[in-house]
Amino acid sequence: MRVLVKGAGVAGLTAAFELAARGAAVTVVETRHCLGGNASWMAGGMLAPWCERESAEQPVLDLGRDAADWWDAALPGHVTRAGTLVVAMPRDAGELDRFASRTSGYQWVDEDEITLLEPDLAGRFHRGLFFPGEAHLDPRRAMAALHEKLAERGVEFRFGIDARHVAGFEYEIDCTGMAAGDERLRGVRGEMVILCAPDVSLARPVRLLHPRFSLYLAPRADHHFMAGATMIESRSAEPITGRSMMELLNAAYSVHPAFGEAAIVETGVGIRPAYPDNLPRVERQGRTVAINGLYRHGFLLAPAMAQRAADLVFRSDKPAEYADETDSQRRSA
Amino acid sequence: MLDLYGTKLPSRLLLGTAQYPSPAILADAVKASRASVVTVSLRREMAGGRSGEKFWSLIQSLRLRILPNTAGCHSVKEAVTTAQMARDVFGTNWIKLEVIGNHDTLQPDVFGLVEAARVLCEDDFAVFPYTTDDLVVAERLLAVGCKVLMPWCAPIGSALGPVNATALRSMRGHFPDIPLIVDAGLGRPSHAALVMELGFDAVLLNTAVAKAADPVGMARAFGNAVDAGREAYRSGLLEPRDVAVPSTPTIGRAVFQ
Questions:
Q1: pTM of the model
Q2: B23 vs A277: CB contact, 8 Å cut-off?
Q3: Which domain covers residue B103, as residue numbers?
Q4: Residue A151: how many CB atoms within 10 A of its CB?
Q5: What is the pLDDT of residues A140-177, one digit of tens each?
Q6: CB spacing of B54 vs A187 below 8 angstroms
Q7: Three-state SS at A119
């Protein structure tokens, strides 16, 4: 079966992977000239469904629970399974209790246990939450590796191409996010900063809770850290604002003062496509399957969405619409 | 019925629209609360290219009165500019005026507030000033043209509830005919019921609903509490007494034992 995947973000790449694995002849078209420049490129890469449950609904946990396994199997060596550490400054200790009351899959850790997990945070936090089942990856490396692996397996990539100019496919998978033009979608702007702090080492993503400016620091190679991410109801892709930058840097500095000496390597803005319920959808219309609305959970939810899209392509006799399924899950949540 | 700047409103609950898990949950929560006014905050980067219009249209589809606010403004100039942008974006002259004086407590800068209120009232805005429970400031706000007052009962988002009920009571006593809305600091439905029992005309809240484990259920609870407090106020509350009074007379026993 010849399948066209439109869009080379995390949704498109994972869909191509699932389809190719099931024997489809896959072509990926991307209007940009290379990987990147999309929301996935700006992602944190946290595979943290238990933490996300703090504000996300149950389907995000259900659909994201196996994401780390999927990525580990697809790209051995890329996934770090070291959990997530959640901390708060002493005066915001109530935020930890609130976070704990909304989530599961954690254990409380005291100052000594935090030191064992993250020696660089010794003495900085008295109490925290540790989510041992969570994982993280570097989104850009993962996307590049997935691209390479797919190309090796015979998936054709055509960059800088408008999908309207290609034809001859039995199925189309639309993974173009905001560009899909779905009227129900809105953009949620996320701003991030990449810092290089040679004096800091973290083994896992650290989330700092604050009543107003929550932040996560996702460790990357060579003492690089991504600090993110704001959530603004806007599809403006203008550069990061002073206020957001200040909030992110302030929060990073509160986690460790050495971030005050960090080099600001990059700032970025991504526009996350979201449906009104902030839950993803896989929908089939004729010979087109659309994956969209991954919101702030691209790397976490893309594998499950890709599997569902492939199910729809390969079991086209089955009229299952997974959007309905996630809808009913939401209502019962 | 609640009358704010000549608009009659069926509900005495005003609900904020920030920090919900999703716009869908926000919409369900607003319905469950039976609020008739929703507040929206206009961040500057959202106004420029109308790039946030999708969220606005979701809010507008609720078909409720919209009260834009100047949240996060720290100066008179900033607040006035934001109010003018909000008038363009939402097509209303209503503005909840916030001029923040302290970054940590989000306490209003009452001096800047009076000045910004004066500028906006002269420009035909219907100003809803977010103020403290200070009576002198309240008088100044009325003098420059405000016809509604919105005192805090505790810092924004603190969920502390009325920390100074005496001050709120005294405010009600001083301004018997001005609509008074408690804005900020409510954490529980019982807090809302309490300030409504004190005779306040309405309450405005956001975080207590948006950050609840089940925002829709909490919105309904607040709606009921506001109704209960209002009805209690209108029905005349029993003042506390020092002795127990049996609700059923005990017949056949000596009275003084």
A1: 0.85
A2: yes
A3: 2-235
A4: 12
A5: 999 999 999 999 999 999 999 888 888 889 999 999 99
A6: yes
A7: helix
